[in-house]
Amino acid sequence: MKCCSRSLWHMSPAIAPLAASPPTIDPSATAFMIICAALVLLMTPGLALFYGGMTRAKSVLNMMMMSFGSMGVVGVIYVLWGYSMSFGGSDVAGVMANPFDAFGLRGVASTLEGVTKTVGADGTPVIDVFGSGVYIPEILFAGFQLTFAIITVALISGAVADRVKFSTWMVFAAVWVTVVYFPMAHMVWGGGLLSGAEGGIPAKLFGVTDGAATVAPIDFAGGTVVHINAGMAGLVLALVVGKRIGFGRTAMRPHNVPLVMLGAGLLWFGWFGFNAGSELAADGVASLVWVNTTVATCAGILGWLAVERVRDGHATSIGAASGVVAGLVAITPACGALSPVGSIVLGLVAGALSALAVGLKFRFGYDDSLDVVGVHLVSGLWGTVGAGLLATGTGLFYGGGFDQTLVQVVVALASLIISGVLTLVIALALRAAMGWRVADDVEVAGIDGSEHAESGYDLVARGGRVGVSGAGLQHDARHHEEITEGATS
Amino acid sequence: MKLVTAIIKPHQLDDVKESLEAYGITGMTVSEASGFGRQRGHSEVYRGAEYTVDFVPKIRLEVLVEDLDSEGVVAVVVTAARTGRIGDGKVWVSPIEDVVRVRTGEKGVEAI
Questions:
Q1: In a 3-state reduction of DSSP, which class is residue B91?
Q2: How do the domains of chain A map onto residue ranges?
Q3: How many helices (H) and strands (E) in chain B?
Q4: Is B44 in CB contact (< 8 Å) with chain A?
């Protein structure tokens, strides 16, 4: 996490003061991070509400289930090989780490024989947070990272609302997080190609100082790994899966705007864990991040609403909720590098840009149903590049020259291409192997009934009885005979 | 006997109901309805995409009356439901063959 010149992994196991007394686990940082991890996990149910309210009533459950399905699949995989692939300690060509080094979090939950690791006073493996001398348990870092992987996969689902087989989605979640997300997390945060490590692309661009890139890329909490990645994957999936029946002709209005507002609120709340928690310690930077995250989001609301008021004549609720998310997305990579005023500028532009970008799908004819591209990709790109413009010290607008911005553009484009190509391969393979779409009549009738055998709302009693039709109906059959006999006699 | 059916604006319902009670009508049936006439629908905007909503919420009010009351009831409803703006609704009268009160079995005018 955080700025990659201070890549986490390469420093912690290396410093193993064999003779010195074991480091003390920092209780405040640990308590803070446990809460932050819980906050980030809450974002995914929040996202389910945000997305669920925006679909039509007949497919609300399927939409929400894609988020909850992601929680199930990705959470388990993360413990098995995800953490190992991103932060397992090894490095395969700067792209990923060995998935088996820390399989099942071995050596993370407790020490492993033959492996030298820094352990706390209670014998728990610890990490030295960015070399600051603050120690937190490594297993806590793994838990925190797990929640990021879950939300990233869940974000993609908004691009393919109303029409995708749940089984294909679940397989996609497993494959995509393994092939795209874990390597990307390694590349950016684990000391790989897109980090500020010596072997990374930024180091090749502007040289190396003290064993790290002179101009390190800024991605504090996941503009590239989470938002550009999910946004691009959403675009590719929307193209491969195809449009919903009636897209661009019939009205596909959000069925429950209050749910969307509630979801946006929960996302915002959880995002404090996402951004401030990425500092991995309760300190001054985390506090700055809290303020930057808030004020950029506030400005995001204003940016989106301003565009709507001028263009459409009304400031809408969905617009405010979307402005919240656009502001949050944009500030994510930049939150540790900007001043509060810089954050306002970043959020304002993000809200306005995304408000303009959501219309593109109608112009270009791709059905990114809930605007994953318009919000996450566009604001993710803007936040990553904008960090290069607005970073205090190294940013272009602060007299830092073009270097930082150029590094940001390179990293953003690299994420875009990696995510796009790999997602395309996965999506096409799954189309051939399993198929993405439910049958047309199922889609029109509503996917909830056929995929989940449920309906989101039962506002009008629809009759019926307990049990499956055909079984246990002898009584009814006899009854039916009596009625028909009565009618004929 | 006649059935007077009125499609009116939802917020005119209270006025219509009170006027009918004052006129001496003792029962009515009200249901929520949606539809459009010359008024057509209205437009809504979600994330910059404008949608035309065809069906506007309305109230359907039904009153059973004796033949000679029908004109008076129609006049009462029209007066009370009118706002003068587009979308005020419609009232129509249809003939009714028979009516039965379920509890007593009374028929015809007695059952109204």
A1: strand
A2: 4-188+204-434
A3: 2, 6
A4: yes
Measured between beta carbons, the chain A residues lying within 8 angstroms of B43 are: none
Size of interface A-B (CB pairs under 8 A): 32
Between A241-250, A417-426, B39-48, the lowest mean confidence (pLDDT) is in B39-48
Q: Do B45 and A254 touch (CB under 8 A)?
A: no
H helical segments located in A372-473: 372, 378-390, 403-433, 440-445, 447-452
User: Does residue B34 contact residue B56 with C-beta atoms inside 8 Å?
Assistant: yes
ipTM over 0.85: no
Give CA–CA dist A160/A241, Å, rounded. 7
Do the chains contact at B47 and A362, CB–CB below 8 Å? no
Contact A319 B47 (CB under 8 A): yes
A413 contact partners, CB below 8 Å, separation of at least 6: none
Is B45–A253 a contact, with Cβ atoms under 8 angstroms apart? no
B53 interface with A at CB cutoff 8 Å: yes
pLDDT in tens, A106-158: 999 877 776 678 888 888 899 999 889 999 999 999 999 999 999 999 999 99
Is pLDDT larger for residue A53 or for residue B50? A53
pLDDT of residue B41: 75
Contacting residues of B for A322, CB less than 8 Å apart: 47
Domain that holds residue B82: 2-111
A254 and B CB contact within 8 Å: yes
A21-31 pLDDT tens trace:
788 999 999 99
Query: The domain spanning residue B34 has which CATH number?
Result: 3.30.70.120
What is the three-class DSSP state of A316?
coil
Confidence class for position B112, pLDDT limits 50, 70, 90? confident
pTM: 0.86
> Which of the pair, A375 or A483, is modelled with greater confidence?
A375
Fold that domain A4-188+204-434 belongs to in CATH: Ammonium transporter fold (1.10.3430)
Contacts of residue B32 in chain A, CB cutoff 8 Å? none
Q: Do A263 and A48 meet the contact criterion of CB atoms below 8 Å apart? A: yes
Mean pLDDT to the nearest integer, A421-425 = 98
Q: Is A395 on the interface with B (CB under 8 A)?
A: no
Give the pLDDT of residue A22. Answer: 82
* Neighboring chain B residues of A354 at a CB cutoff of 8 Å: none
Look at residue A4 and tell me whether its pLDDT is greater than 60: no
Dist. CA A38–CA A91, nearest whole Å: 29
